[in-house]
Amino acid sequence: MITRDLARYGGRGWSIMRAGVSVVGSLNHDIAVTLDRLPAAGETVAGGPACRGVGGKGANQAVALARLGRHARMVGAVGADAEGVALRAALDAEGIDVADVATVDGPSGTAIVLVHGGESTIVVSAGANDRLDAERVRAAAGTLAQAAAVLVQCEVPDGALVAAAELASGFYVVNPAPARPLPETVLNRADILVPNLTELATLAGGPVPEDLDGIVDLARALRPAAATVVTRGGDGAVVVEPTGVVRVPAVAATLVDATAAGDSFVAALTDALLDGVSLADAARWAARVAAVTVSRPGASASLPRRAEVPA
Predict the structure, then answer these.
(1) How far apart are the first and last CA of the chain?
(2) Which of 23, 91, 130, 237 is deepest in the core (most CB within 10 A)?
């Protein structure tokens, strides 16, 4: 059962710029290279062209929401460098409100993305993202209080996640990626938790589950009275609620680059929930959005607009 009352945020009759969502999270300058295979230690391999673009889980989710028609606001930090200027400009061009993106001394976040066989291996240099502390999030208190939903991830410090949990008055969605243990304040406040298998195991302090029963047991041990949607890549997702379990199959797609698949899933799940659908139906919509995402290269560049998602 979802604990927040979403009725006050409207339903399917809303216009395309429907209820607003705030994203508290990371912004990265991505450098992506496609490889035939990953190098071994000490080895150099040839790669394709270096493609630069907007990334970071927070920025990806904000862009995904904006392209699906939501009014998105970004709460984050960039460096006082050319990359920071470019990141702000790119989000602004998507129609995302960047008034709560702070500019701090030092470099912006950078991610080196190695794409091989459609999957991605990513090295992140946090840069300015590590400077998104509780104080900077509290400076956006008005934004967070007015948002229909607040999304957070784990590429920023715990203090930012805790502050967002305390300030959010709407729906609070936690995507615990990359995997790390989270403060109880964050887990207890989350209306929906959206981990993958590894992240679920990290949070629950158990081994990575190998079957449906294992997924359900871990999810319910972690949050017995709350909802968890566990993503499984090409195996779809599992919706675990106190009253039932639903398996949501992946949508067939040609795998080109899975870099932003999880981000698009979380954003689309939130988008659909704010339209008033069930959690299982929201996960089905999210699977369709993610299928389009993985069929295209890049992080934010791969995220589809609503009209590009098959009915």
Answers:
(1) 27
(2) 23
Contact yes or no for 222/200 (Cβ under 8 A):
yes
Instruction: Give pLDDT, residue 299.
Output: 86
Q: And the tokens for 41?
A: 């230690």
- Residue 111 makes CB contacts below 8 A (sequence gap 6+) with 28, 29, 30, 31, 55, 56, 122, 123, 124, 125, 299
Amino acid making up residue 228: T
At residue 33, the 3 state secondary structure works out as strand
Cα dihedral 196/202/206/207 (nearest 10): 60
Q: What CATH class does 7-26+57-105+129-301 carry? A: alpha beta
Active centre residues (catalytic): 263
Q: What is the pLDDT of residues 177-230, one digit of tens each?
A: 999 999 999 999 999 999 999 999 999 988 899 899 999 999 999 999 999 999
Could you tell me the residue ranges of all domains in the chain? 7-26+57-105+129-301
Residue 242 tokens read as 């106190």
Specify the pTM: 0.90
- The DSSP code for 217 is H
Label residue 44 exposed, middle or buried (CB < 10 Å: 0-12, 13-18, 19+): exposed
**Inter-residue contact 28 to 108 (CB < 8 Å):** yes
Binding residues: 28-30, 56-60, 155, 196, 231-236, 257, 259, 262-263, 293, 296, 298, 302
